[in-house]
């Protein structure tokens, strides 16, 4: 079995580590036949992953954060290769959901001796996501986060608190499965394939990544007391029973917004739109875990 590691050299906080050398050391120790390839720019991992799959690599491993995982996974859709993950980001949502090792030696060892399973794949306005996508406040925060000079959890919390004071919900119409119509407001509307955003922040604790359904989490308003309950619910995995959010499950969701709303895929801000089509393709990606 041949394994291709695709490394985003800009990911992770520890820049002093020689990651290619460590990958080589741990993969050699595991007796693997492998190659390490480095991305040269944002978006490059998708093309590298697709190319590796065409070259017959059985497992293509994203070495980076959720952005790199999204790119590699996108490149593997419709191919014969499985996605592996060596997590090096701050959130690592999909790796945590799949209960993959978070340390470098452990994750490399797992990627070299995996079991295989298939997972569902979401799409929002045509963009694939594997963990979560969403509209509203969380997307707005990802946009601000991308523009901030620094990264990490501290910056994220700081931006969230600052923007919370300014952000207002937008009127939206949500259609679930072509039937159920909700006339409501969007503070946060999250589409969860996996249970968490990353960092063990559980937006949809019940989400099952193989059930052919997205868990749709709606927070229509966020006054201060509810914000506290949402914060505690995210951290403890109790949001679904806290009463602070409403949940639905659906395979196909349409959202019409009264004003442009930002959306994110797997934590990365994409753009603003007023119409959103969200779909799920059951078991469309093989993962190595
Ligand atoms: N060689 C590169 N140079 C610049 N940017 C890159 C390169 N390779 C990948 N990227 C971009 O870097 C972005 C961030 O990467 P990624 O999410 O993997 O790491 P991270 O930001 O450290 O993780 P996290 O988001 O969990 O904190 C990705 O969106 C990707 O497109």
TrEMBL record:
Instruction: Give the protein's cofactors.
Output: Mg(2+)
Q: Where is the DAGKc domain?
A: 1-128
* Gene Ontology CC: plasma membrane
Keyword list, A-Z: ATP-binding, Kinase, Lipid biosynthesis, Lipid metabolism, Magnesium, Metal-binding, Nucleotide-binding, Phospholipid biosynthesis, Phospholipid metabolism, Transferase
Q: Its GO biological process terms? A: phospholipid biosynthetic process
Task: Give this protein's Gene Ontology molecular function annotations.
Answer: ATP binding; kinase activity; metal ion binding
Which Pfam families did the record assign?
DAGK_cat, YegS_C
**Which SMART domains does the protein's record reference?**
DAGKc
SUPFAM superfamilies per the record? NAD kinase/diacylglycerol kinase-like
Q: What is this protein called?
A: Lipid kinase, YegS/Rv2252/BmrU family
**Top-level taxonomy:** Bacteria, Pseudomonadati, Bacteroidota, Cytophagia, Cytophagales
């Amino acid at each position: 079995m041949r394994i291709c590691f695709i490394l985003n050299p800009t990911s992770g906080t520890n820049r002093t580590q020689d990651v290619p050398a460590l990958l080589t050391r741990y993969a050699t120790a595991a007796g693997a036949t492998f190659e390490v390839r480095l991305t040269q720019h944002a978006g490059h991992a998708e093309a590298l992953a697709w190319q590796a799959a065409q070259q017959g690599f059985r497992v293509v491993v994203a070495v980076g954060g959720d952005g790199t995982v999204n790119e590699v996974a996108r490149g593997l859709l419709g191919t014969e290769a499985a996605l592996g993950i060596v997590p090096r980001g701050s959130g690592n949502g999909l790796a945590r959901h799949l209960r993959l090792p978070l340390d470098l030696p452990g994750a490399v060892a797992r990627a070299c001796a995996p079991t295989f399973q298939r997972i569902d794949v979401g799409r929002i306005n045509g963009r694939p996501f594997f963990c979560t996508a969403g509209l509203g406040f969380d997307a707005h925060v990802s946009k601000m986060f991308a523009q901030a000079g620094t990264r990490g959890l501290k910056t994220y919390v700081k931006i969230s608190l600052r923007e919370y004071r300014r952000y207002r919900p937008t009127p939206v119409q949500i259609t679930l499965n072509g039937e159920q119509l909700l006339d409501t407001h969007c503070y946060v509307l999250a589409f969860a394939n996996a249970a968490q955003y990353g960092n063990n922040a559980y937006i949809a604790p019940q989400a099952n990544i193989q059930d052919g359904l997205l868990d749709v989490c709606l927070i229509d308003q966020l006054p201060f007391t509810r914000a506290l309950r949402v914060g505690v619910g995210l951290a403890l995995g109790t949001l679904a029973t806290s009463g602070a959010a409403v949940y639905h499950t659906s395979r196909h969701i349409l959202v019409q917004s009264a004003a442009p709303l930002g959306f994110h895929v797997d934590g990365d801000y994409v753009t603003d739109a007023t119409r959103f089509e969200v779909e799920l393709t059951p078991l469309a990606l093989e993962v190595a875990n």
